[in-house]
């Protein structure tokens, strides 16, 4: 019984009992009025049907977002997506062949932080279909055969490890053997600390393979997405014949918070965003995801000519 009705009933005398019964009756009627819908008639809303833009808070269905290439229909914010979504967007007819999917990371050092590295890997493999922080696939973009290496941030922050280095190196060999270009879609927090020097060695390994592609006169395009940091930016992420950014992507070596605390100064507006990097000469162009496939087709046509 609501507090108001309790207080009224306490103040009633014996002669007022009929009035108390009326109060109880009216209270129960109000409660009944709110539960007239049976449980069987209620419809549950499935999870994942709606998504909210982190930038402008616009809410739309996941179907609408995917049809718009995971770009906010209102403010053009580019949502973070993984390799499966990029392959679907870029490859003709969503037809491609994944290469080197059987290669997996191994704990050579017996590294332990909050949990052992091998246990961390096992947990990720159980929860997702990702084998490591990068997938390599070959298919056609606007009729041009292309090999794409795409990082997945959901796998330990897209960190650079020995498996990533090996997959990219083999991908470069595949490009040279088949005379096709390579696109590297970067999305990484940097080197994988659990692999220590094994991780850092991949910077030189991949850079060397890209040098071989350059000698073979095969295009290498680096697409930097949000976020791209650390050793990836410091090496092969910026070695493309064309370095391209997505709109609003955060790209750098150290994060803006670390830089600000180090130099003790406020940073320029938009610092480390792709638009800022384009203005200062670190990028060659910015391509909207909705136009990316068509633009890549034009680029590869120009390279052939």
UniProtKB/TrEMBL annotation:
Gene3D superfamilies assigned: 2-enoyl-CoA Hydratase, Chain A, domain 1 (3.90.226.10)
GO cellular component: acetyl-CoA carboxylase complex
Catalytic reactions on record: N(6)-carboxybiotinyl-L-lysyl-[protein] + acetyl-CoA = N(6)-biotinyl-L-lysyl-[protein] + malonyl-CoA
Top EC class, one word: transferase
GO biological process, one term: malonyl-CoA biosynthetic process
Cofactor(s) for this UniProt protein: Zn(2+)
Keywords, in A-Z order: ATP-binding, Cytoplasm, Fatty acid biosynthesis, Fatty acid metabolism, Lipid biosynthesis, Lipid metabolism, Metal-binding, Nucleotide-binding, Transferase, Zinc, Zinc-finger
Assigned EC number: 2.1.3.15
SUPFAM superfamilies: ClpP/crotonase
Domain CoA carboxyltransferase N-terminal: 49-305
PANTHER family membership: ACETYL-COENZYME A CARBOXYLASE CARBOXYL TRANSFERASE SUBUNIT BETA, CHLOROPLASTIC (PTHR42995)
Family the entry assigns: Belongs to the AccD/PCCB family.
UniProt name for this protein: Acetyl-coenzyme A carboxylase carboxyl transferase subunit beta
Source species: Lacibacter cauensis
Phylogenetic lineage: Bacteria, Pseudomonadati, Bacteroidota, Chitinophagia, Chitinophagales
């Amino acid at each position: 019984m609501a507090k108001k009705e309790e207080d009224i009933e306490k103040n009633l005398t014996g002669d007022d009992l009929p009035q108390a019964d009326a109060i109880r009756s009216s209270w129960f009627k109000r409660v009944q009025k709110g539960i007239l819908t049976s449980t069987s008639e209620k419809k549950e809303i499935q999870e994942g049907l709606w998504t909210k833009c982190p930038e402008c808070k616009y809410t739309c269905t996941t179907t609408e977002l995917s049809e718009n290439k995971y770009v906010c229909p209102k403010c053009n914010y580019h949502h973070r997506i993984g390799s499966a979504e990029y392959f679907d967007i870029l490859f003709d007819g969503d037809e491609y062949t994944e290469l080197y999917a059987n290669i997996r990371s191994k704990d050579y050092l017996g590294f332990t932080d909050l949990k052992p590295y091998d246990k961390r890997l096992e947990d990720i493999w159980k929860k997702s279909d990702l084998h490591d922080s990068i997938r390599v696939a070959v298919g056609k973009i606007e009729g041009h055969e292309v090999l794409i290496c795409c990082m997945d941030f959901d796998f330990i922050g897209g960190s650079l490890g020995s498996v990533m280095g090996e997959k990219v190196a083999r991908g470069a060999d595949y490009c040279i053997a088949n005379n096709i270009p390579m696109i590297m879609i970067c999305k990484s927090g940097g080197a994988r600390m659990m692999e220590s020097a094994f991780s850092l060695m991949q910077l030189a390994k991949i850079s060397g393979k890209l040098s071989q592609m350059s000698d073979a006169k095969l295009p290498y395009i680096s697409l930097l997405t949000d976020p791209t940091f650390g050793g990836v930016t410091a090496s092969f992420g910026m070695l493309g014949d064309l370095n391209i950014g997505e709109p609003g992507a955060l790209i750098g070596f150290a994060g803006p918070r670390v830089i600000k605390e180090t130099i003790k100064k406020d940073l320029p507006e938009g610092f480390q965003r792709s638009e800022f990097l384009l203005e200062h000469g670190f990028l060659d162009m910015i391509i909207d995801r909705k136009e990316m496939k068509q633009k890549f087709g034009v680029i590869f046509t120009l390279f052939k000519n």
